[in-house]
Amino acid sequence: MSGAFFHLIRKKDCKLIVIPAIDLKNGHCVRLEQGEMLKETVYSDIPEEMALKWYKSGAERLHLVDLDGAVKGRPINRDVIERIVRAVPIPVQLGGGIRDIKTVHAYLDLGIHQVILGTVVYKDPEFVIQAGKEFPDRIILGIDAKRGKVAIEGWTEETDISPVKMAAEFENTGIAAVIYTDIQRDGMGTGPNIKATKELAKAIDIPVIASGGISGIEDIEELLTIADSGVIGMITGKAIYEKTLDLSEAIKLTKKVEKNFPRQSSQNGIPYA
């Protein structure tokens, strides 16, 4: 994997990136409808080819999810993940089935730039804090919500805690960002939950990446209006696979907005990619 370590932009940097999603199930690239494991659409039997396609379309980063791992609580699609990391020269973030420090170590050693912790954020917050301190800026929180409450275990269990309350517990712990997904909008093409995403971003000091519901360029334009609230990225899946959103066009749109802001550097002086 070539290139320097990629640092996520901070809230003050006013830069927003579009991140293509590659969800893995049984070694295939799939999309689920509202997180239902039985409601899947297979888009590719060779996920690394899909990764290359998004890279060639201008993607600066990829978002991978081991769906099987998320449900079973351990890495399942590791071989496919390794092939993707080797196939593209851009940062890859990964979530799904990461529940202990050994797995964090293994994935970072594999070449994953940042790991996403989901279920353990609720079940084992001390581990999350430990990981954040041991690997500052390399841990992302995955907070998935259904009807305003956090859902865990691959979206199969609902809790009674709000996304804002959960995220606030991890401020100043080395966490790079929070990915906020509205499950009821994921894969449905009904538009992102702008209100809830903005509320979360404004309530915490950690940068937020929006996920779920993006269906077209209009949604990109709408998310750009809340970039100054602390939203630094957006993850898109079904829209680019179903071709209701052109990834290259979306990236060009965000680049136009980015030109209006000065380029910033990370805390240790390295320019952001």
Architecture overview:
With 273 residues, this protein is of the alpha/beta class. The chain has a single domain (13-257), classed as Aldolase class I (TIM Barrel). Helices cover 33% and strands 25% of the residues. The protein contains eleven helices and twelve strands. The protein has helices at residues 47-56, 67-72, 78-87, 101-110, 119-123, 125-134, 163-168, 194-203, 217-224, 238-241, 247-258, and strands at residues 17-25, 28-33, 36-44, 62-66, 92-95, 114-117, 139-146, 149-152, 157-158, 177-182, 208-211, 231-236. The chain has an eight-stranded parallel barrel with strand order 1-4-5-6-7-10-11-12, surrounded by seven helices. A hairpin with a 4-residue loop joins strand 8 (149-152) and strand 9 (157-158). Helix 1 (47-56) packs parallel to helix 3 and helix 9 runs parallel beside helix 11. It is globular, with a radius of gyration of 17 Å. The model is unreliable at 1-9 and 261-273 (pLDDT under 50).
